[in-house]
Design a protein that fits this description.
Blueprint lengths: L12 H18 L1 H13 L5 H33 L14 H28 L10
Helix pairs in contact: 1-3, 3-4
Length: 134
């Protein structure tokens, strides 16, 4: 049996459930961000600029992490919390909630760093001739 890491508190199921719902809605609404970015980039005539291409690649990478890693990990956490009192059998589908939470925190951090870099690129816009930026 795996014991929780010292100092790591696994959140209660209601909180995880709410966060999972918020993340699903965020993922659905988040589709509008690249669409808006492409429309704005086209209107400004900067679709071929390296900073915008890099931003689109980073945004796509963040979307893949959100859809393929974060949302499934949240679902696994909810499942693990549903079965927290049941005897565990070792296997990939039967992980302890604290182990899932650790990896989920790491992937969420990577997701957030990607978005932070995109925001910086959108504000700074290297090579911009508009005079707006840092």
């Amino acid at each position: 049996m795996h014991s929780p890491s010292p100092g790591l508190a696994v959140p209660a199921k209601p909180e995880v459930d709410v966060l999972h719902r918020i993340t699903r809605v965020y993922a659905a609404i988040g589709i509008l961000v690249p669409v808006f970015g492409l429309v704005t980039g086209a209107s400004l005539g900067v679709l071929g600029d390296a900073w915008l291409i890099a931003s689109m690649i980073l945004t796509a990478t963040a979307a893949v992490i959100l859809i393929a890693v974060i949302l499934p990990a949240q679902r696994r956490t909810l499942t693990a919390l549903d079965h927290a009192g049941a005897p565990r059998v070792n296997g990939p589908d039967n992980e302890a909630p604290d182990r899932i939470s650790c990896r989920l925190a790491m992937h969420t951090g990577v997701f957030n760093v990607l978005w932070a870099v995109v925001v910086i690129l959108m504000i700074y816009r290297p090579g911009s001739t508009t005079g707006v930026g840092l």
